[in-house]
Amino acid sequence: MNKPLAPTGLNLDEPLLWEMGSPGRTGFSMPRRDVEPFPLDDDLAGEGPDFPDLNEMGVVRHYTRLSQWNFGVDTGMYPLGSCTMKYNPKINEKCSQLEGLAGLHPMLPAGMTQGALQLMVELERFLKEITGMDAVSLQPAAGAQGELTGMLLIHAYLKSRNLTRNKIIIPDTAHGTNPASAALCGYRPVRVKSGDRGILTTEVISEVMDEDTAGIMITNPNTLGLFEEHIKEIADIVHAKGGQVYCDGANMNAIMGMVHMGNSGVDVLHLNLHKTFSTPHGGGGPGAGPVCVAKHLLPFLPIPRVLKNDAGYFLSEDFPESIGRLHSFCGNFGVMIKAYAYILSMGSENLKKASQLAVLNANYIKENLKSVFHLPYDRPCMHECVFSDKLQREHKITTLDMAKRLMDFGFHPPTIYFPLVVDGAMMIEPTETESLEEIDRFIEACRIVAAEALESPDLLRGAPKRCKVERLDETLACRQPCLVG
Ligand SMILES: *Cc1c(COP(=O)(O)O)cnc(C)c1O
Predict the structure, then answer these.
(1) Of 178, 261, 317, 437, which residue is least crowded by CB atoms under 10 Å?
(2) Cβ neighbours of 353 (radius 10 Å)
(3) Backbone φ, ψ for residue 246 (5° rounding)
(4) Rounded to an integer, what distance in angstroms lies between the CA atom of residue 429 and that of residue 12?
(5) How far apart are CA 479 and CA 474, in angstroms?
(6) C-alpha–C-alpha distance, residues 406 and 410, integer Å
(7) Are strands 291-293 and 268-270 parallel, antiparallel or unpaired?
(8) In 10 A of CB 455, how many CB atoms?
(9) Mean pLDDT lowest among 31-45, 169-183, 334-348
(10) What is the pLDDT of residue 279?
(11) What dihedral angle (degrees, nearest 10) is formed by the CA atoms of 251, 255, 257, 263?
(12) Are strands 213-219 and 167-171 parallel, antiparallel or unpaired?
C-alpha cells in the first residue's frame, strides 16, 4: 500500500482487493454462538474460494475510489458528437425502478400486465406524434438493430410487391452503422458523395437511383450536424423508381417538435431512446431503437404487437406478413419506462425547447471556436458542429493531441476522426442540458488548447498529464491489452 499518490493527489492508486486485506479481517460481527457447532456435509465443507479477508470500510473505500476513476455525464461535460451524452433526470430512473414495473415477469398473462401494455401503447403514440409517422415498434434494442429492422421491413415490403432489389444508396455523411445494417440484410451499399454544402444534392441521387436499388438510408440531421434540406425531393426521386426511404433518426434530439418526418417522404425511421429520451448510455447498457413507419409498412412490423379490444390490452402475433421477432418478449421495457416518464414530464412544448437549446448551444460553440479551429462547413448547424485540425497540423499537432489535452481540463474529448468526410474531424455535441457557464468553460479550455498547439506543442503531444492514466500507446494497448489494471 506504499504506492505514490496520483498526480492530482486526489486519485489514489488502488491495489486489487487480493493485494489488500489481512487474514481474519471481516466485514461484519456476529453475536457469540450459543449452540454447538454442527459439521457440514463433505460436499459443502472444504477450502472455499480464495477471497481476501477485508473489513467493510476497506471494501467501501476500494469501490468508491474505483468509481472516481470513471468519467460520466454525472461528472462533467461529455461533448461526444453523434452520441447525445446529455444529462438524464434521475426521476426517470426512479420511475423505471418502481416495483410494479421493474418486478413484472414478462410471461405474466395480459390480464395482469394492463399497465405495462398501456404504457407501451402510449409511448408508441407519443413517438408517432413526435416523428409524424403512422406506426411504431418498440422492440429493437439499439439504433443499429433499429436500422436492421428497417432494412428487413423494406425488404419484406418490396418482396410483397414481387420486387427483388440488391443495392441501397448510402451517403458519405451517414452514420457508420448504416452500411453495416444494409449489408447484414443482404444489400450492397452504394456510397454517394454529399455536395459542397455538406448535404446531399438531388442530382447525385437521380444519377444513382435505379430499379435495382431498394432505396436510400439517409441520416438526418447528418453526421456533419447538418439538416438534409432536400430530403423531400430526394424521397420523391427514390419513390419514383419504386424505392423506399430509410431515415436514421438517432439525431432526433435536434429536431423534436420541429420536423414532421412523415411529411418529408420518409417510409421508415428509427430513434435512439438511449440518446434523445433519457436513458444513460455508453458502456453497453440496455438501449432501445424503436422504428417508426408509414402506413404501408405496418403489416411487416415485428411481433408481438400490443393491441386493444373491449377486454383491454393484449399481445398479438396475428400479423402473417410480419418480419418476426427481433428481441425476446417486447424489447427493453426499462428503457421504455424512462422514455415515457421523460416525455410526460417534459410535455410537447419543452421537448421542442430541448431541441432548440441543443441547436443553440452547438451554434454558440461553433461561432466561438471558428476563429481557432478550422470549420469545414461554415453555416448554421443543428445539434453538433464539426471542426478539423487543419490549422494546428502545420505545427504537427493533431486532433488526437488536442482531444487528449482537453481531458487535463476535466472534459471528456469530443468525437474524433468521425465523420470520415472531414479529415482530422472533431465533432462536438454539447446537448441542451449543459449550462452557459459550463459551455463557456469548455470554449475557454478549447481556446487554451488551440493556443498551446502554437506555443507549446510538446505539452500537447504528451497529454493528458493530470489524469489517472497518461498517454497510452494505443497500438500496443490494442495488440496486448492488459486487463488487470
Ligand atoms: C448512435 C447512432 C447510431 C447507432 O446507435 P446504437 O444504439 O449505438 O446502435 C446510428 N445512427 C446514428 C446517427 C447515431 O448517432
Answers:
(1) 437
(2) 16
(3) -100, 130
(4) 31
(5) 9
(6) 7
(7) antiparallel
(8) 10
(9) 31-45
(10) 94
(11) -90
(12) parallel
> Which residue's entry shows cell 463433505?
42
% of the chain surpassing 90 pLDDT: 82
Q: Say which amino acid occupies 59.
A: V
Residues belonging to the chain: 485
Q: How many CB atoms lie within 10 A of CB 313?
A: 19
Buried b (16+ CB within 10 A) or exposed e, 392-424: beeeebbbbbbbbbbbbbebbbbbbbbbebbeb
Torsion angle (degrees, nearest 10) of CA 151, 153, 159, 160: -170
Distance CA 339, CA 107 (A): 23
Q: Which residues line ligand 1 (CB under 6 A)?
A: 82, 142-144, 175, 177, 219, 248, 250-251, 272, 287, 289
The secondary structure of 30-76 as a DSSP string is -PPP-S---PPPTTT-S----PPP--HHHHHHHHHHHHHT---TTTS
Helices 333-369, 114-131: axis angle to 10 degrees equals 30
Residue with cell 476522426: 417
For residue 186, give the nearest of 205, 168, 207 by alpha carbon. Answer: 168
Look up residue 111 and give its DSSP letter. G
Rounded distance from Cα 24 to ligand 1 centre (Å): 50
- Supply the residue whose CA is at minimum distance from atom 6 of ligand 1: 143
Angle at CA of residue 248, ends 301 and 343, nearest 5°: 75
Q: Which helix (H) or strand (E) holds 245?
A: strand 244-248
Per-residue cell: 226:
447538418
Which stretches of 325-435 are DSSP H helices?
Answer: 333-369, 390-393, 399-408
Q: Which helix (H) or strand (E) holds 312?
A: strand 312-316
Residue with cell 409524424: 132
**Nearest CA, atom 3, ligand 1:** 143
Q: What is the pLDDT of residues 297-344, one digit of tens each?
A: 999 999 999 999 999 999 999 999 999 999 999 999 999 999 999 999
Q: How far apart are CA 327 and CA 402, in angstroms?
A: 41
- Cα(234) to centroid(ligand 1), Å: 22
